[in-house]
Amino acid sequence: MRLKALDFYHVRMPYHVPWVTSFGSSSSTESVIVRMETDTGFGWAETAPSKAAQYSPEFTSGAYKLLVDVIGPSLIGQNLPTSAVVQEFMSGVKGNNFAKSVLDIAWWDAYAKSLSKPLWQLIGGYSPRVLVGADLTISASIDSTLQEVGEVLEAGFQRIKLKYGRTSKPKLVRRIRDVYPDATIHIDCNGCFTLDELPIFKELDEYDLTMIEQPLAFDDLIDHSTLQKELKTPLCLDESITSLERARKAIEMNACGWVNLKVGRVGGITPSLQIHNLLQKNGIPCWIGGMLESALGQGASLALATLPNVKYPSDVFPTTRFFASDLSRPEIELSEPSTITAPDTPGLGYEPDPEALSKMTLAHKRISV
Prior knowledge:
By secondary structure, the protein is of the alpha/beta class. It has 13 helices and 15 strands.
């Protein structure tokens, strides 16, 4: 495939309820959407590193500028027969995986469309039925959290992820476990604690959590390895796994028992498949995370969630969970309780709605031959 043109869109999509994590409260998602035009057709993709450099060192407006000024122009006019070639062209840019991911994913969308195959089938997915879980924001009230837990369990969700920060208390988890002793629950700390707070994790270790996700710094492996030796609860690495090499080192150091694999964080579908296969070979299960993107961005996560080593309900959510209106179509819906079915249409199966895209676009740049 020869790349003829790229359209980049910096977009903002408001939530209908605030999303609160250890980073703070957010009222919207900002992301970069790309339309890739090739001599065989076109592909779409989305990346959402976050409005501010909180989840990782990347942020949306920076990713947009890098794509428009540097990475995009380097690809225009090039022959891109494989995703490995796409990755090679981008390899001179250090880091910036979220920015790179949107071009890798768009290539896969265009390639799958050229073959008239759904992306999830093309990458080796074993079933379009994807188990998904419910994520609950940090709340100041134990009672309100208990109510939310009850509601999502009543709705049939097979696991619950609790955002957990410095304002959270182990007694919250204890109360939930007392009321719902058989529920599948884990907590996500988004890297806000240190080894000095080992007593907190020793207490949490008693509440039968499936895992503790990213308790320590976003770029750490060593302290996670130390913490894992102190706990019976498996640790799950999220922010710390940014590449195949980082995954290899985490495995060798016994730094985790799970990995949350996010397509944007690792740089696209291509490295995601490599990391998935390495984890599978070494007996480390994974699940697929997301960044509260539109249905377009979630389409890549949904495709990855069909892979055989995905052993835990993933973070793909119905559109109405966070958004009054999605800028992409079709909107994502549950096909049955705790289940979303990957589309059988070619490619990702999702594209922006032109009117919604225009309404939510903050900046747009077209680069062509």
